[in-house]
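FORM 7B - TANDEM STRUCTURE REPORT

SECTION 1: FIRST PROTEIN
SEQUENCE AND TOKENS:
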Amino acid sequence: MILLVSTAVPSAGRLSPQDLI
């Protein structure tokens, strides 16, 4: 799911996956 969000929104998604990890 995180990967999909990152691909859909590289701007906001980029911070999302990093914050979770």
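SECTION 2: SECOND PROTEIN
SEQUENCE AND TOKENS:
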Amino acid sequence: MHSPSVNTSPRMGTSSPRQSAEYLGRLRRSGPIRLEEVRAAVEGGRIDTVLLALPDLQGRLKGKRYDARHFLARVACTHAERCAYLLATDVGMQPVDGFALTSWGDGYADLNVVPNLGTLRQVPWMARTVLVLGDAFACDEQPVAVAPRQILRAQLERLRAVHGFQAQVGLESEFVLYEGRPSTRLLAGQPLAPVSSANLDYALDHPFALDRFLRRLHSALARAGAPVEAVKTEAGPGQIEEVTFPYGPVLEACDVHLLLKHAARALAACAGMTATFMTAPETGVASGLHLRLWLDGKPALGTGDGGFSPTGDRAVAGLVEALPELAPLYAPSTNSYRRYAPGSFAPTSVVWGRDNRTCAVASSATTRACTWKCRCPVTPTPTSLRPPSSPRSPTALTAAHRFPPSSPATLTGT
């Protein structure tokens, strides 16, 4: 938590006690703002635009900009139509064949996007704007089962209903920051250059442009009700890793990850830079998912004395058992699977270990709780670690009780 003396303005100076108190108040907020607050802000002229966004299969926010008054009067408590192809495109936003949801055969019909008013947030990098996430529904008012948030919501409900568990996650998010914009670089016949070519792992002396970007990102996310716990740079050129947020309920944590991606890209563009969450060819491990399981309000994976409970043993067995089948989600691109190489910090064996960074699944047991961490050489995408992508972990856990645990991996030689 920041102290009251911290200056959160991008300019030099000291903040007043009142400004600091207001900032700390924002940090303590649960995140989203209430619809009544939005109405009041619209009436007061402080908000004039609402972004209604649907997370797509690539982990992007897609939607429309609405006049705020129109949104409140005609959309907020009903729905808006969207072309269903938003859930059937590739990374280049091109329609992909083979989807049962929609296709050229049915003319790419509409689906309904219902605003989830519990996700309303300010968008500090856009003037007088708020963002709200939407859930996809078919014309018969049934949830669209393949929508990323619905996939995750259904898995979490199964985890609760069948086994009584509740899951919490902490997402380690990574992206790479480049100088310039793709359009201008391509016109000049030059590739994008990382914002820094030095090894900045755990560095505290960042180049000025990078430090300014990180400050703006930190401030913007806090003002959006999603304060960052910590940020560290990594060894790869331009690599920003471990943008971490507090542990939280899975769906909410994934929603915040979506916000991070949107903010990083927008703020980078404003600074004449490019932020990409695609797997970069130069770097090592790219993301981590820290997972905790709770039963009746108590940690379910550990014993309380640093050991693992029977549930914890079976959970790691289920994760290890499921990893090969989940490989296409962890490593969907050439950049991803080429990085499964010795000495790269990307796991090369389907094994688990205790506090072992070379393992695909690593455990950390303390006297308070037990955490499992999934590691993979790919950044979070809807089908891997993000809002609709984090389903893999709850899915693995719901099946984990079927498998006995193996022995943890140990290091031998190099």
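SECTION 3: OBSERVATIONS ON SECOND PROTEIN
The longest strand covers residues 165-179.
The CA atoms of residues 236 and 283 lie 5 Å apart.

SECTION 4: SIGNATURE
Preparer initials: ____
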